[in-house]
Amino acid sequence: PGDMRASVPTSVRVVLADKSGQAVTPDQVTFFAYRPSDKSQDFSAPMTDMGGGRFVARLAFPLYGHWDWLIAVRQDADEYTTGGRLVVAKP
User: Fold this and answer.
1) Cα Rg of the chain, angstroms
2) Average of pLDDT values for 22-49?
3) In terms of C-beta density within 10 A (0-12 exposed, 13-18 middle, 19 or more buried), how is residue 76 classed?
4) Measuring CA to CA, how many Å separate 84 from each of 27, 61, 77, 80, 81?
């Protein structure tokens, strides 16, 4: 997403593809948000399949500041993850 602000709903999108660049349709995709300074604010949201390997979650971060994020993709018994850190601005 672009500019993210605390308590303002925004869409988080991801495109999933295999090694050859073909879109994948896993069983489940989940967005996780972790607040490094206050784990009581951690949350997760299921991501909706938009087709063509595109997934979206509509969410609002409750507080401004630094957040770690993780996207978990499940297919059968396998799970793949990717993550990073983002900054949420004051509302």
Assistant:
1) 14
2) 97
3) exposed
4) 23, 15, 24, 14, 11
